[in-house]
Amino acid sequence: MDENYEPAQTDGAADRVAKDNKKKKKSWDYDKEIGRLQVELADLQAWIKKAGARVVIIFEGRDAAGKGGMIKRITEKVSPRVFRVVALPAPTDREKSQIYMQRYIAHLPAAGEIVIFDRSWYNRAGVDRVMGFCSEKKAQRFLELAPRFEAAIVESGVILLKYFLTVSEEEQERRFRRRIDDPVRQWKLSPMDVESYQRWWDYTRVYDEMLRMTDSNHAPWWVVPSDDKKRGRVNCISHILQSIPYERVKFDAPDLGKRQKRPSDFVEDRSIRHVVPDTAS
């Protein structure tokens, strides 16, 4: 037999190899692109601080659509003092007695801040409405007032960006089942997630109405298809960067100078120290 002979691959094997190669290329391209975008986010951060700009970014969407992963990629290389993430828990009894928008107003940005809302006042148009946490009358009133509230925010000089992440029924179910099977993801599956899975069409109706009634020229909704999480992240972060008119700020590298010399009278402390055991192998 010819020593250079290689058995022919079946069509199925060839398809699998091509698919694997495509995945590897896709992953490599994603890592390179997300790294480039994170450098731009650092540039944005420098400008935000220097210009004293104020930015609000709202992330809404289907459960398991990837809001958490999106926010993580945006914030993992920047300062939490500039990129501040707000994910409010259920309102307290005191907050329930306040004007609905009141607890959100307290978290709006000061100069030099970007506030990212991981869900926002739009809870009233989504989960509150579907789950009966507010009356239909209050939900409708919110939908009427939200554009006016956002107009006041924008008129005050705040840049407001709103993103709605979508995911298909099939992909949402796959992600939920993965959470069930993976011990490190099980905490991400809440009773409310189960309800959102079972009541897909109830949520579809209220989200459609929310997007229609609260889309405006001053604060439009931007829909992010997220069945492919990586593509969704790259597309959304690129859009954020394109939507904020920032400029690159020159970095003035500090002069570290010289470290002081060890004092001649310094005596090393010999008291007992509790050192963490080295378990890394």
Automatic annotation (TrEMBL):
What is the catalytic activity of this protein? [phosphate](n) + ATP = [phosphate](n+1) + ADP
> Looking at its record, which EC class is this enzyme?
transferase
Q: What is its EC number?
A: 2.7.4.-
The domain of life is Bacteria
Q: Which residues form the Polyphosphate kinase-2-related domain?
A: 27-250
Record bears the keyword Kinase: yes
Q: What is this protein called?
A: ADP/GDP-polyphosphate phosphotransferase
